[in-house]
Design brief:
By secondary structure, the chain is of the alpha+beta class. The chain contains 10 helices and 10 strands. A 3-stranded antiparallel sheet has the order 1-2-3. A hairpin with a 4-residue loop joins strand 1 and strand 2.
């Protein structure tokens, strides 16, 4: 940012209000020109008119090539922009990037993919090399989202946006690499992590929670002999999918009803599907669900 003390200034009434002007020199012809201070403190070069600006850009070969970029202040994005010309197929093409990125690459080389340039003092006007920091995309998102909690509506919108989304093979590999790296660092071995993971599926947080119905005690007649009798009757096969099964299920979900006609042998998978809240096309499981008391 330019210092106003380095310029000769005056106030000029433009019909609506008094505006501060500073005396600058045209970068092409060297003549003095009064320019609004708000423009002076943001720009590097000034011109008498558009013609002198075009002539200056045409003659200044120093702006050809990235290493010879010129800098302009972007008021809308509140940052410095580096611009330069490059020769492409016999034509000049205008290129641009942020001044912060341009400075970093001039000193340290090309910025790797997935990394960002940040300002140490959070001041985008301070583009000195010692004020620039290189951070990864993950570190940047961590800083941005620290202490931020999504609303329930935002969570629903994110869920809808990702519904049906197919991940590319490269994306899946990156997720796998990230999980492996976390596992090697021991993040999943801590007691805090295990407790937090258990809490997410414990009790009322479990999608199959039925208000504590599974905590009801079985009657005295519910014995190993009774269950073996039912399994033997059903030939140790699930009566829904006819694979090997050994879970004895109460058809009406009443643990006190030990009538033999109310007991049936099922496999673990079918037993889970009976009590699950997920949709199913199996008419037998649908029929069992209709008889559940919870």
């Amino acid at each position: 940012m330019k210092n106003i003390k380095d310029f000769e200034t005056k106030m000029i009434h433009n019909g609506n209000r008094n505006v501060k002007y500073a005396l600058v020199k045209c970068s092409y012809c060297g003549e003095d020109k009064w320019e609004q201070w708000q423009r002076v403190k943001r720009q590097e070069n000034f011109f008498c008119d558009r013609k002198h600006c075009n002539l200056w850009q045409k003659d200044q070969a120093k702006h050809v090539g990235k290493e010879n970029a010129r800098f302009n202040w972007d008021e809308s994005n509140h940052r410095w922009i580096a611009q330069w010309w490059e020769e492409s197929n016999g034509k000049r093409v205008l290129k641009n990037t942020t001044k912060a990125k341009w400075l970093w690459e001039q000193v340290h080389g090309e910025i790797p993919d997935g990394y960002w340039i940040m300002y140490g003092d959070d001041n985008s006007e301070n583009c000195k090399t010692e004020n620039l920091e290189l951070i990864s995309r993950g570190e940047r998102m961590s800083d941005v989202m620290m202490g931020h909690k999504h609303s329930e509506e935002a969570k629903r919108n994110m869920s809808k946006a990702h519904t049906g989304k197919v991940l590319s093979s490269e994306h899946k590999k990156n997720i796998s690499k990230s999980i492996v790296a976390r596992w090697r660092r021991g993040e999943f071995d801590t007691k805090e992590y295990r407790n937090a993971a258990a809490d997410r599926v414990r009790g009322e947080n479990n999608p199959n929670w039925r208000g504590g119905a599974t905590n009801n005690p079985y009657p005295a007649g519910w014995s190993r002999e009774l269950k073996n009798k039912i399994r033997l009757r059903d030939d140790h096969k699930c009566q829904i999918c006819f694979v090997s099964g050994k879970v004895v299920h109460h058809i009406d979900a009443d643990k006190n009803n030990l009538d033999l006609d109310n007991l049936i042998t099922v496999c673990k998978r079918c037993h889970h599907n009976i009590h699950s809240t997920r949709k199913t096309s199996n008419i037998v499981i649908t029929a069992f669900r209709s008889m559940l008391k919870y």
